Amino acid sequence: MSDTPSPALPKPHAPLHAQPASATELIHHPYQPPTVFAAPTFGVHKASTVLFDSVAAMRDTTWMDKSGYTYGLHGTPTSFLLEERICALEGGLQTLLVPSGLAALALVPMALLKAGDELLMPDNAYGPNKSLAEGELRNWGITHQFYDPMNPDDLAARISDKTRLVWLEAAGSVTLEFPDLPALARICRERGVTTALDNTWGAGIAFNPFDFGDGWGADISAHALTKYPSGGGDVLMGSVTTRDALLHKKLKLAHMRLGLGVGMNDVEMVLRSLPTVHLRYGAADRSARALARWASQQPAFVQVLHPALPGSPGHDHWRRLCAPAQARADAGDDSGAAASLFSVMLDPGCSPAQVDAFCDALRLFRLGYSWGGPISLVVPYHLDEMRSLPTTLTPGHLIRFAVGLERTADLQADLAQALSHALR
Ligand SMILES: *Cc1c(COP(=O)(O)O)cnc(C)c1O
């Protein structure tokens, strides 16, 4: 045994400094974890400020593309990742994330239109999109007209020298008529008018927003990620996807000027849900179709609106556009070819009180807006307050169901008990 003392063992969790760190040392803490971390999950990078190594790097970095990072509002690795995945889901080339589906709809005219321009929108467009045209856009000198989505000639007749943007939506909101998208898009293309599709219903799954079967599609796809991509009913987000670099640049400039960045906690939620979007879309589609078929046998429902139901307005257009997705589903693919929404016209002989009693009597279908989450929802509507143009829908009390992920048999029993309760 020698007298020399053995070298001191390092203490567990040896501090970098001899003394506990000051605030300054903590803020400027030098440790960097190894940059390579392989896992099937992704990192959640949150930042307002992004740091640069030099003034030259600061000046050289642009927010216009994904070559680097400048400021949290313009994205972090987390939002870049979701943008690329949404872009892939929809078959686009560029995607921007915005704080809600409605913000996605609003970004498009704000980026592309100016005073004196006109916007055309289907008469069954998502209600708040119509409100935007009737409110802010009108105040800014941008005019609009609603067109009959089921009559391409009506669209063609309304396009003028002032028309700069045409919204498309398939299926239409609440009433779910399915328009002849290839015909509508062709008219716009021939007249040189930009088209923007509200692609929330199709979600990039039921059909290709950039190819309606003839090699052509919409110029812009706006998507409420709040619905199926989130799938949890707990986050609001939207996306705007394009295949044209110039269009994307215009949208990106407006996105930057308006400060429409998204929070990375929300991005994380959508990234976490996205791998199951096809499964959830497909499962809810099968359930909704079974319920819509059952509903069409109930005498109290004088019309059932679901594009995959023969006889529903635009069924043939749905069948053509969504044939590839339907063929995949028929071949055993777990995905779907229609969103899990259907509407009914309740017998016009029912009183408004009976309509309310029916909706109130539902136990699993809860009263609430939005859709695409696990819970089934119901909303009664007044069609006459939603439309400017005549419709060919069967008169009745309009009720919209959004089918979630509960057992189909339980949902059917719920509809049946509410019907017998309200109509007894
Ligand atoms: C829900 C919805 C929107 C808006 O999405 P939010 O995130 O709720 O703003 C837009 N279009 C359609 C068709 C929708 O169903």
UniProtKB/TrEMBL annotation:
Alphabetical list of Gene3D superfamilies matching this protein: Aspartate Aminotransferase, domain 1, Type I PLP-dependent aspartate aminotransferase-like (Major domain)
GO biological process, alphabetically ordered: L-cysteine catabolic process to pyruvate; transsulfuration
Residues bearing the modification N6-(pyridoxal phosphate)lysine: K227
Reactions listed under catalytic activity: L,L-cystathionine + H2O = L-homocysteine + pyruvate + NH4(+)
SUPFAM superfamilies: PLP-dependent transferases
Enzyme class: lyase
Keyword vocabulary terms for this entry: Lyase, Pyridoxal phosphate
Annotated EC: 4.4.1.8
Cofactor(s) it depends on: pyridoxal 5'-phosphate
Family named by the database record: Belongs to the trans-sulfuration enzymes family.
Name of the protein: Cystathionine beta-lyase
Species whose genome carries this gene: Comamonas serinivorans
Lineage, broadest ranks: Bacteria, Pseudomonadati, Pseudomonadota, Betaproteobacteria, Burkholderiales
